[in-house]
Design a protein that fits this description.
Number of helices: 11
Strand content: 15-25%
Distance between the termini: 25 Å
Shape: globular
Length: about 250
């Protein structure tokens, strides 16, 4: 008999409140059309302000979070801070995923690890796109760092918008429906996919499907890509009634 109950572990910045709403919302939507059921379990890393120094201090706490979640024997873990990973150096998502997985091995419960940074790369690769546009809540220097990281992974960021919100709780308070106008600041000529939120703290889910219908290219986010990668790690079909092209069931 195939497994139908899964525990989803989330490694979360202490001030993040969006990952624990948008990712469960995507899994709950999936429950409407598939038999699998999911519960969600978090461990937190201290972080209030989105700057390079605080992000580095936060990332150092992720090992302890992985150990705590492996105590709960979760089926997969998602590290929910894209910019923390990307600010640590190009390709760091591979290092982070390997290190955190080793923590679970050492704790006698080997667990697949997903980082939102690695998941964004995986999601864009699955869509088969190269030229993208990006919306991010970060200050411009951090957004530039994110753009450089993504381009180092083989993509071309044709245009990007930085909303320049430094306080992490203020990021969470942004109205996702404003993205329906914000994205129009981007030049989408030659763009094959839009990353509507390169941040799992910036709410975006209510706007994704509407914008995708408007612009007729895939629209995705860090949270959607993280959900996609988690489902793949669990061996489940990456399909939900919401969440844009990536969760359409085609990938």
């Amino acid at each position: 008999m195939s497994k139908t109950k899964f525990k989803i572990g989330q490694i979360v910045p202490s001030s993040n409140v969006t990952m624990e709403t948008e990712i469960p919302a995507l899994f709950r939507a999936r429950e409407e059309i598939y038999p699998e059921r999911f519960t969600f379990h978090s461990s937190r890393m201290r972080m209030k302000h989105v700057n390079k120094e605080e992000l580095a201090k936060m990332d150092a706490q992720s090992d302890a979070c992985a150990i705590e979640l492996s105590d709960a024997q979760v089926d997969v873990m998602g590290y929910a801070c894209l910019v923390a990973i990307m600010s640590m150096g190009k390709g760091y998502h591979c290092i982070s995923q390997s290190r955190l997985h080793q923590q679970t091995v050492d704790n006698d419960f080997p667990t697949p690890i997903v980082t939102s940074a690695g998941a964004l790369v995986e999601g864009l690769q699955a869509l088969g796109v190269k030229n993208i546009a990006v919306v991010a809540p970060y200050m411009k220097p951090l957004t530039r760092l994110v753009v450089d990281y993504i381009e180092d992974q083989g993509f071309t960021v044709k245009d990007w918008v930085a909303l320049e919100v430094a306080d992490n709780l203020e990021v969470a308070a942004l109205d996702p429906n404003n993205l329906k106008e914000i994205y129009k600041q981007l030049n989408l000529d030659g763009v094959e996919a839009l990353v509507l939120s390169a941040c799992v703290q910036m709410p975006s889910l209510p706007a994704v499907d509407a914008i995708e219908q408007e612009i007729n290219i895939p629209v995705t986010t860090a949270a959607i890509c993280t959900t996609y990668s988690m489902l793949k790690k669990l061996g489940l079909k990456a399909h939900a009634p919401i969440g844009g092209a990536l969760l359409s069931g085609k990938y």
